[in-house]
Amino acid sequence: ARPGGQMARAEPPAAAFERRVLRSAAEHHYLRVRLELPDGGARPSVAQFKQLVVSALRELHGEVGAALPVDVLIYDEKTLSAILRVISSGLVKLWSALTLLGFYQNRRCAFRVLQTSPFLLALSGNSRELILD
After folding, report:
1. Cβ partners under 8 Å of residue 117, min gap 6
2. Distances (CA, A) of 94 to 66, 99, 101, 114, 129
3. CB atoms within 10 A of CB 22
4. CA gap 87, 60 in Å, rounded
5. Contact yes or no for 4/64 (Cβ under 8 A)
6. Which InterPro entries does this one have (predicted)?
7. Phi then psi for 70, rounded to 5 degrees?
8. Can you name the CATH fold of 28-124?
9. Which of 17, 32, 56, 72 could join 97 via S-S bond, C-beta 3.0 to 4.6 A?
10. Average pLDDT of the chain, as a whole number
């Protein structure tokens, strides 16, 4: 007993905290993108769109970037929108290459990355584009 009649209290052992950063275990990432061509003109076909993506990768990251496996899952020529699939380790390379691309056939252009997710289902609907009757 301590002076004053108090019982000595055992302090609980300090909790050991371990920081864990969980990276997505997903093999692929999906991007919903839109190509903006402000001056109009011919719209790229799906093959030309894919070639534009590959050339953007080559321009920024060289031949190693151009070899990055990117798939065009859906392409709408009318809206110039697409859903791209890339291996997760190449997401930053693809995103940066698309962001920095400025020309298509000597015309100004810009890629807009609208959504990205490791889950394809997450891109199936966008609440921001929801039209209620």
Report:
1. 29, 30, 123
2. 10, 9, 11, 14, 25
3. 5
4. 18
5. no
6. Pop5/Rpp14/Rnp2-like, Rnp2-like_sf
7. -125, 130
8. Alpha-Beta Plaits (3.30.70)
9. 56
10. 86
What is the per-residue pLDDT for 20? 65
Beta bridge partner(s), residue 76: 81
Q: Which residues contact 2 (CB under 8 A, 6 or more apart)?
A: 8
The answer to whether 4 touches 50, Cβ cutoff 8 Å, is no
pTM of the model: 0.75
With beta carbons less than 8 A apart as the criterion, state whether 100 and 60 touch.
Answer: yes
Bridge partner list, 82 = 33, 75
Task: Write the secondary structure of 106-126 as one string of H (helix), E (strand) and C (coil).
Answer: CEECEEEEEEEECCHHHHCCC
Q: Is 4 helix (H, G, I), strand (E, B) or coil?
A: coil
- Range list of H helices, the chain: 46-66, 91-100
Q: Which amino acid is at 17?
A: F
Task: Report whether 53 contacts 133 (CB < 8 A).
Answer: no
Cα(37)–Cα(50) distance, integer angstroms: 16
* pLDDT digits 0-9 by tens, 9-27: 677 677 777 776 556 578 9
Structural domain boundaries in the chain: 28-124
